[in-house]
Design brief:
Elements (H helix, E strand, L loop, with lengths): L9 H6 L18 H22 L6 H9 L5 H4 L4 H4 L3 H19 L4 H11 L6 H24 L6 H12 L4 H9 L8 H5 L3
Helix pairs in contact: 2-3, 2-8, 2-10, 3-8, 8-9
């Protein structure tokens, strides 16, 4: 077993996620970084997993889903945030970016001490995460992006109008019952002011 003197820059990389801005091609009323986005996706994914289990007979590990969600954009500390319109502009670009992400996953994984590397593999490497977990995390990612768009529109920023419409359509088309539940139960109040929230008690 490795001694306590082992040195790793893994968490030094993670701390830099706060400097990576999302939605780089758009004017933002409220800037969002990858670190805060990852937290939001994690708590939404955790809720989706619990909803699936308690209301729709699911058997997913909600804690494992939440933890994997925390790391879902970790490779962007190397690749940066590639805006969705560019990432999905063509099949060639999409496939090339997937390969870059895989390489970044391996590089980050190799930064970890060998004794705990296997524990992180199922969090960092997307092809090691159960498909059911990935599906929940992807839905949580879309919901997070939708809420961001709604906040921008509320601030009068029409830059996010098309993105908000596209995300709303994708979420509405979801066949995941837990997603429908979340959007009905939790999403509407996210647009309230603090005073509005206080009145709901």
């Amino acid at each position: 077993m490795e001694k306590n003197t082992v040195s790793s820059s893994f968490y030094a990389y993670l701390t830099r996620l706060r400097w990576i801005k999302r939605w780089g091609l758009k004017r933002n009323a409220h800037e969002e970084n990858v670190m805060e986005h990852s937290w939001e996706v994690s708590v939404i994914a955790h809720a989706l997993a619990l909803i699936k289990n308690r209301y729709f007979n699911g058997t997913v590990d909600a804690n494992a889903v939440a933890t994997a969600a925390l790391y879902h954009d970790i490779t962007e500390v190397i690749t940066g945030d590639l805006p969705t319109p560019i990432k999905y502009h063509s099949e060639e670009i999409r496939n090339a970016y997937k390969e870059i992400e895989k390489q970044a996953e391996i590089e980050l994984l190799n930064l970890l001490p060998s004794a705990i590397r296997a524990d992180f593999e199922g969090l960092i490497c997307h092809d090691k995460i159960p498909e059911e977990h990935l599906q929940i995390i992807k839905s949580a990612d879309k919901i997070s992006a939708y809420l961001k768009c709604q906040a921008e529109l509320k601030a009068g920023n029409l830059e996010f109008e098309v993105a908000a419409t596209q995300l709303a359509l994708k979420i509405a088309e979801s066949q995941q019952e837990e997603v429908i539940f979340f959007m009905q139960a939790f999403a509407p109040s996210c647009g309230l002011t603090l005073d509005g929230l206080m009145k709901t008690y």
